[in-house]
Amino acid sequence: MDFNIQQALGPAGESLVAAAQDLFSIWLAIQVAAIGIAAAVAAATAGIARRRFRVDEATMGWPAPLRRFAHLLLEHIGTPVFLLAIAVMHAALLSLTWPSRSYLLGVAESLATAWFVIAMVAGLIRNPFVYRLVAISAWTIAALSILGLLRPTMAALDSVAVVFGGLRISPLLVIKTAVLLLLALWAASAAGDFLEKRVRSAADLTPSIQVLIGKVARLLLVTFAILITLSTVGIDLSVLAFFSGAIGVGIGFGLQKIVSNLVSGIILLADKSIKPGDIITVGDQFGWVTNMGARYTSVDTRDGREILVPNEDFITQRVVNWSYSNRRMMVISRFGVAYDSDPHRVQDVAAAAAASVPRVMADPAPVCYFEAFGESSLDFSLRYWIADPDNGIINVRTPVMLALWDALKREGIDIPFPVRDVRIRQAGMQEQAKG
Question: Which CATH class is domain 258-321?
Answer without folding.
Answer: mainly beta
